[in-house]
Amino acid sequence: MLDLNRRKLIRGLGAGAVGLATGGLRIGGAHAQSQAITVTAFGGIWEQTIRDVMVPDFTKRTGVRANVLIGGPQQWMAQIEANRAKPPIDVLMNTVDLALIAGKTGLVEPMAKDKVPNLADVPARFLDVVEGNGVLFTYGAWGLAYHERVKQPPKSFKEFVEGTIKGRWRASLPSAAYTGTPQILIWSLADALGGSVDNVTPAFEAIKQMKANSVFWTGISDPLTQLESGEADVAVYVDGRAWAHFDAGAKWIRYVNPTEGGVMQPSIAQKVKNGSDAAWEYINSLLSPGPQAEVAKRMNFGVSNSKVDYPEPLGSRITPWQETRWPPFEKTGIAQREWLDRWNREIRA
Predict the structure, then answer these.
(1) Structure letter (DSSP) for residue 118
(2) What are phi and psi of 303, to 5 degrees?
(3) What pLDDT, on a 0 to 100 scale, did the predictor assign at position 100?
């Protein structure tokens, strides 16, 4: 079972990763100037946004400092697993499949509205997706980005597959090396083409037929280079990064939410068990409408507080979460090892 395998992986990583923790930042109360908590952030614009927006809001309200630890969920979970009694991390940022494991294995605590008042303005589905053991912070939708030279772009994933097979454009697809491929490509195409999480053969058949007119990528910025250079014309890609590239000067890039719906990819915030109680206040900052609006502006991603009103052009760009498709994350997490084995046998890209 994947749960067990992931847990073994986390434990295995723990021995090597624990030394990377900032460590030693335990606090008893939540509101003393000398206190500090440790929170996590992904790299790049994620890290800068957390440092510029969320940490100042939290410190201003509580007087508590927040140290930002950069890395990835598996590394962070390994560090927590290695020292459950005194975890080196207080707030964990996670993917959905690993957030579910963190909840089932007792690494994190259930969300509580009496400790996080801004939860009152967060749709229930943003907690239900991880069984209440965390809350959605931001999300992106994986649809189709394309170059303006494509005069009749696909409006759906089905059209995208058919047009690629017929050679109307060259496609840019994530390879097996990209962590999100099981959800954003395999499950997505299976779902769009009449299959399901239990029957992904339609996706594999489509990818095999598309392969002659496709290039595959491993790095998140690769599709942007492929589209600009002409190596590809249409890419499976996430809305926020496509619009961020547009704002950076790539006025040729376009994005469409396919009629089936882009694939929901959330980031999940979790309170680590035995971590500082001040972590609840930090999560409240993460969900606060003012800071969330600034996050959306900087990152071009949707946020979770329903009170956030996106100004234009952001309002027209961010895909409403109701118009996205939500993979059955727990099932895709369990199935992905088998899918990747099949990919290596049948696709080899």
Answers:
(1) G
(2) -125, 175
(3) 96
User: How much is the pTM?
Assistant: 0.86
Tell me: pLDDT of 64 over 60. Answer: yes
- The phi and psi torsions of 138 (rounded to 5 degrees) equal -135, 170
Question: Is the distance from CB of 89 to CB of 76 less than 8 angstroms?
Answer: yes
**Helix (H), strand (E) at residue 246:** helix 239-247
**Bridge partners (DSSP) listed for residue 269:** 93, 135
- The answer to whether the bond into 117 is cis (omega within 30° of 0) is no
pLDDT at 153 over 90: yes
Strand partners, 171: 214, 234
What whole-number distance in Å separates Cα of residue 139 and Cα of residue 300? 10
Could you list the beta-strand ranges (E) of the chain.
36-41, 65-70, 91-94, 108-109, 135-147, 171-174, 214-217, 234-238, 253-256, 262-272, 302-303, 324-325
Reported confidence tier of residue 44, pLDDT bands at 50, 70, 90: confident
Nearest alpha-carbon partner for 162 in 182, 201, 184, 189 = 189
3-state secondary structure of 117: helix
Here the contacts of 175-182 (C-beta below 8 Å, separation 24 or greater) are: 175/216, 175/217, 175/218, 175/349, 176/340, 176/343, 176/344, 176/347, 176/349, 177/218, 178/217, 178/218, 178/220, 179/95, 180/142, 180/265, 181/340, 181/343, 182/332, 182/335, 182/336, 182/339, 182/340
